[in-house]
Write a sequence for this structure.
């Protein structure tokens, strides 16, 4: 059976979860569900995110957010077959924030796994057209690339990414029903 890696850009994934009102998602179950959709064995999930902004000195709210995120990232890193990659958050001149380093890490992982033939399928939970060159190269190496998207709340994917992937997996609210944590946190 083919092996698939799942690549989750958590910035995009959080938007999908908010748009579909999904909460308490079991990321291991989600990864396995995605792989079952493309008829592949789950190889590994790569999870990309950034820590939240902290002022200097940080506010109490910023400290709490940072602490929660730190615990969350630590818990994901302990999951079997999960690899966490962290970028950084920078403040733009207009006051908004932008992730830096996340896209390049995802690109490197996708290309490395494709070139080493560790995977035959790649599942992107990401929407950015910056991934198009990596997707094209992965496909040139024989990897089938699937893009996940949601029609809810404007969580589609860039047209160029849509066009360059082999197929798409729609994430609907009901898709997440089977992947919730049990009340005891499992």
């Amino acid at each position: 059976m083919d092996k698939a890696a799942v690549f989750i850009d958590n910035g995009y994934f959080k938007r999908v979860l908010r748009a579909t009102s999904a909460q308490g998602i079991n990321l291991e179950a989600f990864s396995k569900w995605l792989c079952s959709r493309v008829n592949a064995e789950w190889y590994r999930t790569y999870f990309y995110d950034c820590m939240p902004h902290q002022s200097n000195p940080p506010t109490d709210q910023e400290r709490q957010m940072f602490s929660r995120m730190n615990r969350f990232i630590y818990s994901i890193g302990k999951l079997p077959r999960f690899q966490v990659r962290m970028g950084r958050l920078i403040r733009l001149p207009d006051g908004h924030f932008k992730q830096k380093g996340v896209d390049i890490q995802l690109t490197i992982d996708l290309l490395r796994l494709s070139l080493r033939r560790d995977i035959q399928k790649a599942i992107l939970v990401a929407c950015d057209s910056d991934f198009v060159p990596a997707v094209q190269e992965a496909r040139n190496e024989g990897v089938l690339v699937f893009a996940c998207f949601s029609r809810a709340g404007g969580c589609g994917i860039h047209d160029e990414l849509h066009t360059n992937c082999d197929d798409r997996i729609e994430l609907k609210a009901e898709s997440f029903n089977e992947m919730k944590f049990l009340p005891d946190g499992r």
